[in-house]
Amino acid sequence: MSHVAKIELEIKSLDALIQACQRLGFEFVRDQKKYQWYGRWVGDYPLPEGIITDQLGACDHAIKVPGCTYEIGVVKRNSSYTLLWDSWESALRLKIGQDAGVIKQAYTVEAVKQDALLKGYHVIEKKTDTAIRLVLSR
Amino acid sequence: MQEIIIDISSDGEITIESRGFKGKVCLQETQFVKDLLGHELASQLTPAYYETNKKSIKRYLKLCG
Q1: Confidence tier at A87 by pLDDT (50, 70, 90)
Q2: Residue B23: is its pLDDT beyond 70?
Q3: Which of A90, A105, A138, B9 counts the most CB atoms within 10 A of its CB?
Q4: Which of chain B's residues have a Cβ under 8 Å away from the Cβ of A123?
Q5: How far does A95 lie from chain B, in Å, by closest CA?
């Protein structure tokens, strides 16, 4: 081992996000400008950085999660995308995980696989109980 | 064997390890993953980072005879 780094994820690739949705069985709806939520901000969870209450409910694309009424909004901000959702619905919370970790995990896997293969790496995916490991070699 | 290992937990936490690289090349090899995914929160160098690919030459001095 020569170094270890921790990364804070930014969603930059819409293609990888679409692939992630397919992987999870979610439906990515391109150009859907509103996502389903409670409809009124009650202050029960922190807003993402740079998002104000008036922006809630509006999006550039949306993600529909099977078995859930509420949806996930995909909002383009500069060169990356922010996910917005109402965590009040327990079914949605369970499917996407804490802080949408399940979507972020699937996105990371798809984004890395796409780019690494283009760069000539051989990619092996391994699943553990709580994580997915990608091994890149060439 | 030179490998880049990326662990992604179900809460979205990402850890990148480079294995088998010697010296600064490990940082160059993993940079594309960091650029792709976001920004680095923390980084820890391991002893291999300080090694180089240069072969060391051992010289022995005759002490007797």
Answers
A1: confident
A2: yes
A3: A105
A4: none
A5: 11
User: Residue B10 is nearest to which of A4, A111, A131, comparing CB atoms?
Assistant: A131
Residues β-bridged to residue A64: A27
**For residue A72, what are the β-bridge partners?**
A63
ipTM comes to 0.86
Dihedral, CA of residue A37, residue B14, residue A49 and residue A87, to nearest 10: 20
Closest CA to B6 of A115, A56, A65, A95: A115
DSSP class of residue A13 equals: -
How many residues belong to chain A?
A: 138
CA distance A88 to A106: 22
Start-end of H helices in B1-65: 25-37
